[in-house]
# Entry
Amino acid sequence: MSTTLKTYFTKQTQAAPLAVFRVFFGVMMFASIIRFWVNGWIEKLYISPKFHFSYYGFEWVHPLGNFTYILFAICAISALLVAVGFKYRVAIITFFLSFTYIELMDKTTYLNHYYFISCVSFLMIFLPANSYFSFDAKNLKKASFYVPNWTIDSIKLMLAVVYLYAGLAKLNSDWLLKAMPLKIWLPSKYDIPFLGNLMQQEWVHYAFSWSGALYDLAIPFLLVFRRTRWFAFIVVIIFHVLTRVLFPIGMFPYIMIVSALIFFDASVHHKILQFISKIFRINKAEIDSQIKTVFFQKKKNISKTIIAFFLLVQLIFPWRYLAYPGELFWTEEGYRFSWRVMLMEKAGYAQFKVKDSVSGKQFYVDNSDFLNTFQEKQMSFQPDFILEYAHYLGEHFAAQGHENLEVYVESYVALNGRLSQPFIDPTVNLLQEKESFKHKSWILKFNDDIKGL
# Structure
């Protein structure tokens, strides 16, 4: 085994696929940041709200007021520098740190693809993605036609993890046997040209559910094998374009489409680079002829160890939900950062009561006084949001002079088309509960059973 691994880590492959991935990743990230800015979401999501929900352990990360615009500008500029491969190492580290900081500023905006971008940009810190077709490669001592094979395979494995875990997560009774939540979402797309009427058909809901699970589970393997690669890539395009049409998930479909190119042979990527060269009037052939370092030369470092450990964590981390009792979709303990994509439709109601434990006086809170509509919606069905908000209310009213405070919540949640059920124990003073990785025993039991992974 050790000999096999040693042989594998000495193998080299052409650098073009890694260069194309770097270019497209940087361009897509730059476009994403600009899109976020132009749509006014920086102001709406990070500056206007009075309160922001934080991730456990990252409570110190918060928006920077109007300086948040500078943070986004730094992120956009670093993405562009990554694309062109200028001061690549500094650029990709800056992008990873700035983007991840943005991601951590408010838990309300959590999306799987934000996490994916952070994961990929972290990987890219340790990859020689600037060794070919980059400004850095103008220094011929840093240029190379070849890179270690594992550098490209690490990105392929990251993509495979995303797809396979998303597919495994769909193997549950709600998704396969009830076509939930697609049975709720698809009929609302009645106004889509040509597809609107089709979206009303129940068989379509089941077809989308089953084909979605099959797609996620099969696509990594279809992309790996040369005979099925082009067919798989066409399916990738169709699948992600369709999801973009049906659901408001931003740039993610396009990111996944261009990321799938990493599975193709170097000859395809050289054609892509040649196309880019024509657009920007770059003489690729002349630049290639000047590269004297054909094989990648690099001193021993810990990059392989860091990447191997990181990918191992990605393989193990999504299974942490098994350590918690109860239904995952109900408690959401271990749900985030596990590539569970669009599996639930939850709607909640949460009415908070603030009480003086000595006098017995109490009053109810108008959530709109503290949260915007989007924040209130997300808070109403996620236990950690409810707990954090309860503590915020306690601190707020304590600062106003109220004493002996207790905070209770009356809450109901509807999951995947079921009737709403009581969610949080209304007799528990949430100010006595602390956020941790332990099971939240004050979440009431889910009165149903969802079978599956």
Residues 345-432 form one domain. The chain has two domains: 9-317, 345-432. The longest strand covers residues 346-356. The beta strands are 12-14, 146-148, 346-356, 362-364, 405-415, 421-422.
